[in-house]
Design a protein that fits this description.
Radius of gyration: 33 Å
Order of helices and strands: HHHHHEEHEEEEEEEEEEHEEEEHH
Shape: elongated
Number of strands: 16
Strand content: 25-35%
Strand order of the largest sheet: 11-12-16-15
CATH architecture of the largest domain: Orthogonal Bundle
Mean pLDDT: 82
Low-confidence stretches: 76-102, 105-118
Distance between the termini: 29 Å
Helix content: 10-25%
């Protein structure tokens, strides 16, 4: 079974792009084949983390993976060994531009190999994903509910419309890198380019920053959202609201909001999948003679028929009295276990009646031997 991409990079599912990139850079440096010559385990680890990064660093691929898992991204990321370079790069095509990108991620530098130059980074940055923890009553998880929540998040500045510049003024070309996004210098046989420290790789500068957001393009606000919880959710269920996370910087795409549900335990019922379980006490006479019991369910009272001669621990199913199937029709069952309660306080009349009953229905108390079929069952159990 393929490993979870988030576990491969040791990040949470709500990790931001920068957190994913940092995690990948650390692992790539640790497991790079050139640093571990002849170590096949390290090489496989490097390919695995490169494959995970190739998916999680792409917003569309990441969204598909979050929803459908490995099937949503067509299994392994494309590409094989990095041809022509020692050790290879799993998950990348192996051309010089790809090699430059990899070195840029790992070492913060761009190696110009065979004339492949660096690329200017976009000013736009995707907003961070956010997490909101919501606690539900047991009944709310079974029947569904709606609730308004308030989330503090970064939103696009309305004064500058998310550009970061005052009065709609366009950013100016960076004076240090002249719009390239990188500054270059020669190092041995390589022409090395580093991200321009002045414009942070965007190639432009805001000369007249917005006074409200101070050129950051975003401001912190409290956002109200109506959360609809469907019937049948379980403890730990995540509901994804696309685009409801933090706004992207400089008109970049917004992140997502993940509402994570925690369900309180019930005093009477426990849940197993879509089935509910409970224990109902019955008296000795009810077990011996049978009875019709009115028991509580989450939907109201229901009748349980207990046949005569019922033993303690016997279970009965009430069809359709369980939890609704999530996003589909039908319900689970209510499984009722009856337990015979032995009275602890008896008056004289009750004791006399029970003694008379005991004389009429005595039971041989010698230990029972297992039959041959019982021993066969034990061998296979």
């Amino acid at each position: 079974m393929k490993a979870d991409y988030y576990e491969v990079l040791s990040v949470t599912r709500t990790a931001s792009d920068s957190e994913i990139k940092t995690a990948y850079r650390k692992l790539a440096m640790q497991y790079h084949p050139d640093r571990n010559p002849g170590d096949h385990t390290a090489e496989e680890k490097f390919k695995e983390c490169s494959e995970a990064y190739a998916v999680l660093s792409d917003p569309q691929k990441r969204a598909a993976y979050d929803r459908y898992g490995h099937a949503g991204v067509g299994g392994p990321a494309s590409g094989g060994a990095g041809g022509g370079f020692p050790g290879g790069f799993g998950g990348f095509s192996g051309n010089p531009q790809d090699l430059g990108d990899i070195f840029g991620d790992i070492f913060g530098e761009m190696f110009n190999m065979g004339g492949a130059g660096g690329r200017r980074q976009s000013r736009q940055q995707r907003g961070r994903d956010l997490r909101y923890d919501m606690t539900l009553e047991f009944e709310e998880s079974v029947f569904g509910m709606e609730r308004e929540i308030k989330v503090k998040r970064a939103e696009a500045c309305t004064d500058c419309r998310g550009t970061g510049s005052a009065n709609g003024k366009q950013p100016q070309t960076c004076s240090q890198c002249r719009g390239a996004g990188q500054v270059r210098f020669q190092q041995g046989f390589f022409s090395v380019a580093k991200t321009c420290p002045k414009c942070e790789g965007s190639g432009v500068q805001i000369t007249d920053p917005c006074p409200v957001c101070r050129g950051e393009s975003r401001v912190q606000r409290e956002h109200t959202l109506n959360v609809k919880v469907p019937a049948g959710v379980e403890d730990g269920t995540r509901i994804r609201y696309q685009g409801e996370g933090e706004a992207g910087k400089f008109e970049g795409p917004a992140g997502d909001l993940y509402v994570v549900l925690a369900v309180k335990p019930h005093k009477v019922f426990t849940r197993d999948g879509d089935d509910l379980h409970c224990v109902v006490p019955i008296s000795y006479t009810q077990a011996a003679l049978g009875d019709e019991l009115e028991i509580a369910t989450l939907e109201g009272p229901a009748v349980l028929k207990v046949p005569d001669g019922t033993q303690s621990g016997k279970t009965f199913k009430l069809r359709g009295k369980g939890v609704p199937h999530l996003n589909s029709n039908g319900k689970g069952d209510l499984v009722v276990e009856v337990r015979v309660q032995t009275p602890t306080k008896l008056n004289k009349q009750q004791r006399d009646l029970l003694r008379q009953l005991g004389e009429l229905s005595s039971v041989e108390n010698t230990p029972q031997s297992h039959g041959i079929m019982d021993r066969v069952k034990e061998m296979f159990s």
